[in-house]
Amino acid sequence: MQTNVLDYLITAAKKAPEKMAYSNGKEEMTFGEVYDRSRSVGTFLHKSGICKEPVIIFMEKHPKTIAAFYGVIFGGDYYIPVDVEMPENRIRLIFENVKSKMMICNADTMERAKELGFDGQIVDCDEICHTGVDEAALHTIYERTIDTDPIYIVFTSGSTGVPKGVTACHRSVIDYVEHLSEALSFDEDTVFGSQSPLYVDACLKELYPTLKFCASAYLIPKELFMFPVKLVEFLNEYKINTICWVVSALTMISAFGTFKTVTPKYLRLVAFVSEIFPIKEFHKWQEAAPDATFVNLYGPTEGTGVCCYYIVDREFEPGGVIPAGRPFRNTDILLLNDRNEEASSGEGGEICIRGTSLSLGYYNAPEKTAEVFVQNPLNPFYPELIYRTGDMGRWNERGELEFISRRDYQIKHMGHRIELGEIEANVNLLDEVRMTGCIYDKVKNKIVLYYVGDMEEGELAAALKEKLPRYMFPNRIIRLEQMPFTLNGKIDRVALKEMYEK
């Protein structure tokens, strides 16, 4: 049984040392180069006395950054990815939480790191990668590693805006990679187009399967997502056949008429995650990539990436919801109602996860960990942790999991329990609406709807009177030129609330 994620890299470097592993379209690294560079980084950390400790990696989205990730693991440590695009306050909070002794930068981020007041040692990745490899030391570290040792911390703020460091280990990542790969049928011909920043767990869908199958991955520059036509042209130029993107990135392309100019030629797999895919936009993608398999993915960072999948195998009418499907092998989903009992078929309940894909919890935050990593209430006989996601779901008549909404998107308004996601779904049915986000002002008891689209606010209000009952009708409708997004590409409802409160 595999117990170390580095086995993927070790095997790939032996099997295909000259094959391109990661590229950003301008610079690339082969499996052999990634292997050599990461082992030098690991040796440097060992010689510096950094062992079983957090190491911050402050670099841009680049193949060298990925090699640094693996280098930290070779050194027996765990990496914390940080990027210059993060807000300064967030970076400082991360520094304060992990209290790392070392930060790995490059020439472009070195000065910025010093400005942020990092207390530990700052080193240049391009310099330490020339460290002579200490074979004996790395072998000893490898032999002493067990599968519950941590390998990374990624910070997620959730709905609170306060960073929480989710800590994953070898076991959780290996199980995730194995089961995701099995469900999505990756192979050596897979060419990934990576949308996610490297400081969120979503990038795992490309990083480790690339090693496992000796596939290839292109790290798509962030700026291309502001220019949909150029983005699709990038996919075609590098013959990218597999994308696993957040829904907002996909709808940004389809909703603005990109496919009238250019369509993706090589896609064979389109996986989507993070939010409900509006059916009208989903149909545009099906038409643009008729030979592709479409897969809905669901799962929180605390569960080490995604844990459920549904391969779209039937038609969905406007207003329908594509299910999250079924859990990966060796993962179980529990739906718990307000009485901590298992919800019946069709009944809504909180989605809870159990299995070895669970992360280790939040770094340096035992109280926050204990709030959501809890004893399984259905099992009073022995210790068994589950993760309470805060998401609401139900089982449909086919036995598939359907995501309803976040628990904190449920509101009580005018005597009725309302899902804000249901309001958004109805608004997204309108052809003139490209994107929408709904929030609730608890103080004034007002539903506030933000949207991006071609309709005036009055026109949208008139159209919604035919779709929504009075108690669900927004008290305010606000048109935006652009929807705010979180660092990992979801609609930023915290930012929407802040915009409303100003």
What does this structure look like?
This protein has 502 residues and is an alpha/beta fold. It is 31% helix and 26% strand. Helix 1 packs across helix 2 (31-47). The longest helix has 17 residues, at 31-47. It is globular. 48% of the residues are buried.
Write the layout of secondary structure elements.
Layout lengths: L5 H10 L4 E4 L4 E3 H17 L6 E5 L4 H12 L3 E5 L5 H11 L3 E4 L4 H6 L5 E4 H4 L6 H10 L5 E7 L7 E6 H15 L6 E4 L9 H10 L2 E4 L8 H10 L4 E5 H9 L13 E5 L5 H10 L4 E6 L9 E4 L14 E2 L3 E6 L12 E7 L5 E2 L3 H7 E3 L9 E11 L5 E6 L3 E4 L2 E4 H9 L4 E9 L4 E8 L3 H8 L11 E4 L13 H9 L1
Helix pairs in contact: 1-2, 1-9, 2-3, 8-9, 11-12
Terminal-residue CA separation: 55 Å
| Percent of residues in helices | 25-40%
Rg over CA atoms? 23 Å
Q: How many alpha or pi helices?
A: 16
State the strand order across the main sheet: 2-1-10-9-11-12-13-14-15
Mean pLDDT score, rounded?
92
**Helix and strand composition category:** alpha/beta
Q: In what range is the share of β-strand residues?
A: 25-35%
Q: What keyword list fits this structure?
A:
502 residues, alpha/beta, 16 helices, 31% helix
Summarize the structure.
With 502 residues, this protein is an alpha/beta fold.
